[in-house]
Amino acid sequence: MNLFRSLKHRNFRLYFFGQSVSLLGVWMQGTAISWLTWRLTGSPRWLGAVGFATQIPILIFGLFAGVAADRFMRRRLVIVIQAIAMLQAAILALLTLTGQITPVLIFILSLFLGFIFAFDYPARQSFLMDMVGGEDIGNAIALNSSVVHAGRVLGPVAAGLLIAEFGEGACFAVNSSSFLFVIAALLLMRTKDLYPQESENNHESIFKSITKGLEVAWNIVEIKKPLVFMSILSLAAMPYIFLMPQVVSERFGGSARELGLAMSMSGLGALIGAVYLGLRKDNEGLYRQIKLCLFATGLGLVSIAFMPSLVAAAPSLVLIGVGSFIVVAGTNTIMQTLVPPQFRGRMMSIFTVSFFGFAPIGSLISGFAASRFGSHIVIAGGGAFCIIALAIHSISSSYTRARQK
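Below the sequence we write its predicted structure tokens.
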């Protein structure tokens, strides 16, 4: 089937199935950490602070991580990163299961996880090309993203059930164990079957390497514009993830199980988006669809403020999932296709910073605003920001074209 064509590569098959298990654990931990923070503090400010801690290291270290992904063997780099992530989850599980966990420790461990993420995403995303080559990269990105969002569907539901029976610590323990699968997959790969990695000039200074990468991203208009839209999505829309515990608890009267279902709805939408992108043969029209999906995401977020129950909000959450996925994965596909090979790691670090790096700022602002106005109002405000920014861009582009005529 056309949808699964990149699975013909043995190394990618191993990675795909190893990731399937590992990412289920990652999403379980994400749901559990949000619920644990809410249970211990009852504060939307703390929810925003933990979201900030998880993502601010990406903004600080992300561009350096891109240089590392271009200079070192990516397979080895990914193995080391997964092992460190497994350790972080194990520490979190131990502290929670023994009753020693506190909001401050959650914040510190979230900072540590953010540091791991800063190096993880550029390395893993650029490693996709090493496994499948240029012909199948678009399909590999879509399939890899489908695994991420299948975990996003199943992980929160599993977390909700596990929290109800055994507590949040069990989710962290499961996540720690799940990393063994992706590490095993990486170790079982045939290195001779990997596509050659074009290495970065190791004698060049790190800052010069970063500057060159930024220049490439800025000078290729087809890359620059989607990056701007994705940054808007990250800043204004994605903080909804960290605010959902308050919405589910106070507005919909739900518990950890309902939170898991809510997050799974947006994950289901993302999975639909992944199937759609996986069936595409090329990038034609993808930029227009990114703009349309940013609008759809904003519309979904605004509508949540008017929903009286989780059931009523479900279609909005699915719409948010579809829209946000296509904005992010579409931008990734465009970048991987157009970027010069020797800049791939740095382009993926710019992608990572653009998506994850702006989110902590949005999370921190949203957390403080939610404590004053309510999370559902702040989520709707983020959606309105996306729509207004898109409208301003469209008007500005039309004006520029008119002047050029």
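The chain has a mean pLDDT of 87.
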